[in-house]
Protein: Probable farnesyl diphosphate synthase
Organism: Pseudaminobacter soli
Amino acid sequence: MMAPDTIPFEARLEARAEQVEALLRRLLDDRLLPGEIARPQQLFSAMRHGVLNGGKRLRPFLVLESAALFEADAEAALRVAAALECVHCYSLIHDDLPAMDDDDLRRGQPTVHKAFDEASAILAGDSLLTYAFDILADTATALPAERKLALVLGLARAAGPGGMAGGQALDLEAERSSPDEAGIIRLQAMKTGALIRYACEAGAILAGAQEEDRERLAEFGSAIGLAFQLADDLLDLTADAETMGKATGKDAAAGKATLAALHGIDWTRAQLRGLVAQAHALLEPYGERADLLRQAASFIAERSK
Amino acid sequence: MMAPDTIPFEARLEARAEQVEALLRRLLDDRLLPGEIARPQQLFSAMRHGVLNGGKRLRPFLVLESAALFEADAEAALRVAAALECVHCYSLIHDDLPAMDDDDLRRGQPTVHKAFDEASAILAGDSLLTYAFDILADTATALPAERKLALVLGLARAAGPGGMAGGQALDLEAERSSPDEAGIIRLQAMKTGALIRYACEAGAILAGAQEEDRERLAEFGSAIGLAFQLADDLLDLTADAETMGKATGKDAAAGKATLAALHGIDWTRAQLRGLVAQAHALLEPYGERADLLRQAASFIAERSK
């Protein structure tokens, strides 16, 4: 059941997604950048397949709305949002590979290694990851050099072996080693949390906001990142394959422990309410200017797909 | 047969390799950086396996010597050299995967996916690529923000879909499509050339050298990058497996066209001499201060493994 006041939020989410997709389509077209020798057709087709797939663009939304909160340059924010989405999509392409989670479908469409082949999927992921740093550092991202560098460093650390990639490594190990609760929390803070945290922090970096605001937005991102994961685990426990457009119950089948599976549905729902309250409290200083970020926190905790 | 005047060069190459390896060992140890939540053991083991493998560290050497030519900060140059080597090693780990070139051995040791598993090899490569941008952008790389950004952008463009990753994609296609001579040259300029070009250019960027010097070093890099590839093709045609420590004659077996195979050994040797002369001519303005780079050009063209 959708509460009436989330309807304008969803319209806003869609409008933001369209903005980001228009830019991604342009960044992934056939025009060469200076220093590029050629853009191999099949590689760019595979990259587009992995990116222009109708995603909700939640991470870009968080970049754009946190940037708007601090009145950052909107064009630059859009490029940062697109770079982040390239990193998110690379991670999905590689996670779907046979050697990793071995998924054939994503959003009801064949995954990149099914639509193309494994080599193309590996290279498309590698390319999207590398291209994200190109997008940030390019002169077209009109920001002071110090801020662009902070964005590069933040993205590298959120996505790298001490962040998202490390979380995926721990997740694969978890199938064998059954981590304890602290281990599951750490794994998820890395695998899904780090990039969502960065998405929120990036808005403050873009605007050159005070260190205190940057830290506050990062904490907001951590809270909704954890909520995102708990909501996902809950869906894995309760939803059917049709709603999700991908295989469900898969975590349990793979023997992967989740907090939701460990503590049950009621506990998880209570945790989600607590995280949303915490996220909302962090936005207190910004008054109603932060309403869209507040709604994003609620949307993430309550989403049904 | 080794000419006597290359002996001091090889000693210098080894000394530089030791410097870079000491830093790489430190960068890949278990200490967390700010913002990192954990360093998964198996992942970091796989990363170290892929990096600390006794490579010649030719690309780092080029960074360090081109940086020294322009009197850049030596500590910063070492970090840039290490970042570049992480990108080179990521590319080897992914190229060796079963879905790509399917190699079990590298330098006589099991490749990362053989020593660990495919998922670990994919993630170790992803992690090294991401970590390279972390190393460049980190405050420990003590350079003006503008130069660090130029280094990030240059690396992203050299390694990305319009550079190295794109070249690997074209190389895989080449097994099916038999590119013409122009196609082979383009493929190799991307696959191996772009990163070697960047290695030489990076020294000029590090030092904040004039645009003209930067362009000159980049062209020097392009010339020796092409020489590197021709020498490699020649070895593939002539050397035996023992000398190389890996399977040879493989390109021909896979139906991959190379310039050396197309034109023969004598033509290739003549081309190599021409490229070395061209590379040496580009260094003319720097006099004997560029002697080590000159020797590097000769070494690359004449190497026997």
